[in-house]
Known about the structure:
The protein is mostly helical. About 65% of the residues lie in helices and about 5% in strands.
Amino acid sequence: MSQFDSYASPLSSRYASKEMSGLFSPRTRYSTWRKLWLNLAIAEKQLGLTAITDEAIEQLRAHVTITDEEIDAASAQEKIVRHDVMSHVHVYGIAAPAAAGIIHLGATSCFVTDNADLIFLRDACDLLLTKLVNVIDRLSAFALEYKDMPVLGWTHFQPAQLTTVGKRATLWIQELLWDLRNIQRARDDIGLRGVKGTTGTQASFLALFDGDHDKVEELDQLVVELLGFKFGYPVTGQTYSRKIDIDVLGPLASLGATAHKMATDLRLLANLKEIEEPFESTQIGSSAMAYKRNPMRCERVCSLARHLTGLYQDTVQTASVQWFERTLDDSAIRRVSIPSAFLTADIVLSTLLNITSGLVVYPKVIQRRINSELPFMATENIIMAMVQKGQSRQECHEKIRVLSHQAARVVKEEGGDNDLIERVKKDNYFSPVWDELDKLLDPSTFVGRAPQQTDKFVKVTVSAALAPFKTYLTSEKVELSV
């Protein structure tokens, strides 16, 4: 069994994007191995190894993309020799006979397996960044559209002061921006293992170049450049340090936490009937209850986000138990956890992209909930207005306290509407401010700087963060599998 093959197909075939599932496919993996062998041969030839001919290079280049038949042939060979890399060396040599004797020259298996892994980590981050940028962009458009719409804020899931629909969305966006920063940072910190040999000493390559240390260093750097990396790790054991996996999957786990929090908020808002995820005209919410509109997309996000955050522990535990220059108990778990993390993150972002492209807001429900709570919030405004009319604050406070408790009793014990304002309008004591009650109860005066914060955040902070990713933006609608 080759690296990553055991996991890529089941999850990706139905849910993950073609790009991400393709990246972790057998064809991409084995073709990347061939690309590594090709570039190793190019570098070795360039530095003077006469055993490598132009014909060998051309045959390697002509067959760098593996065919289905060659994958099957390598699988059959592996059953005989019980070694995946050597099976592919054998099959590649049949396709490129002029190079059969120099494929993998001086290298250990980790030259292809680990360098390929690092390429996949880098390229998978790029795929995630593209989707994450678009989620942020669409959610930012939503925030601007609803920056002025007052909505009841919650603390401890109890009614608190008002905010706006757009301002609440900025809280999700801010965390997504941090995820964007973290994934980009992790991506840029990925180097190549390069050519380091069996235990990282480069002894085999030193022998190839007759003890010329400068040429070995030059070979290492040349391979790094040919593979499109800015740098290679200066020292390794047989493998690159598994702490690199921690550095990469850590930001993915953090993204999982962000996605879970956002999707949970939307599930709660769906229960409140204030905001819902997209719901297709022919979609069925329940096999029994025809009226239901279950937030299945957000539930999917929460479900997969929990899996994503848990995978981080695989990398931490694996890195901690590597013995000396290497041990093999990292291999099987990485075949599962690394592709699983990227495939899962890909699905989470695809789902969020679908959700943020079609959020449905119900202003009348939002206004009704505000109306049920705003009278209590407005009591301080009423007291201040009465004091300005010459009334005693203490006397006014007592009268409004009594009326508030009467209104609360109607709401809690009788199930009625909040009638505090009607009670104020019927009490002649408050007649000096009757004409001002509508102004005192205007929800827009209770949201503070929420609209201004939202506007500046999107137009300054978000705009600056997305500026390097302008080419990533798309208006394409994301369809989801059921």
